[in-house]
Amino acid sequence: MTDYAERVHEYYDAVDADRIDDLLDLFADDVVYDRPGQPPIEGKAELEAFYREGRPLEDGSHTVHDVLVDGSRAAVRGTFSGVQDGEDVEFGFADVHVFEDGRIAERYTYTDRDTV
């Protein structure tokens, strides 16, 4: 059985190190990613475009405080510190990752900011 807690840690490590190819390998081809204040990202091509060109957060890192796994779902609570729109930011987040066949098929992000 896949260790979903380990997989979500791999995700945050890849994001923080800007390893986009490694990050994309964690997701299903038909992934759906919902985040605050934005339309959903649908499919791996849109996800790649987001991480390569459209992500408003940069020069940052995630600190994961908790990962709770229930079946094929992993809930994560943490903090992000970095830059958004040229300004230093730090905020809390909660993400839910839904796995299918060992890959992230759905992802939901919640933050205490209007958009990320």
TrEMBL record:
It comes from the Archaea. Residues 8-106 form the SnoaL-like domain. It holds the Pfam family SnoaL_2. Gene3D superfamilies: 3.10.450.50. Signal peptide: none annotated. InterPro entries: NTF2-like_dom_sf, SnoaL-like. This is DUF1486 family protein. It comes from Halobacterium hubeiense.
